[in-house]
Every structure is written in structure tokens, then in C-alpha cells.
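Sample entry copied in:
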Amino acid sequence: MLISTGVVGDEKINCHNVVKIGKKAMKEIIGNNFKDVKMKRASRVLFLPIVNSAVKIHNTIVPIDPVLLFQRIMIAKKDDDELTDYLEYELAPFPLALFDESGMRKTKEI
């Protein structure tokens, strides 16, 4: 449970086993050439904030780290004008223009 927000994790959260998961991943890497190394999704450590920041893609839950996303945008942009294009729309799982405060927008009858 995250004390500051009260968010409670579920069985997917495994940050308490970070050392064990890291050692297991290192054992799989040792002795292999870098080009042959394959990292498994099971070796990923999932922290408590992903409870609120994850999306489901093809029946797989993918954690979204807003800081990492912002860092990648900073690397991809070439100048400040491009940054405006990247941040023009709010990141959401659905187009926000389809919704208002009460829910999905309705068509107006003529």
C-alpha cells in the first residue's frame, strides 16, 4: 500500500522481490554474447504506481512510466517547436474530444 495516496497493489506488483528478480536475470545473461541476450517480460519489476498507469494491449497489461515517456519525447525532439507538437494532445486511452463532463457526447437531433 502506498502511504501517500492509499493505492493498494495486487499480485502483479513484485517490487518487494527486486533483488531476487535481478539476480535471476543476471544469471541468465552471464556467459552469453550481448547479441544473444533476450530479456523476458517475467524479469520486469513492476512497482506500485503502475496500478494507475498501465494500459491493456492485446490482452497484455503494459506499464506506462510517465517519466520515461517524457524522457523519450525529449530525446526524440529536435527543437522546442517539435515539443509543442508532441505535447499538443493529452495522452489518454481514448480521444478526449469524444467526451465531455457527463460522459460520451451525444449527437444533436435536428
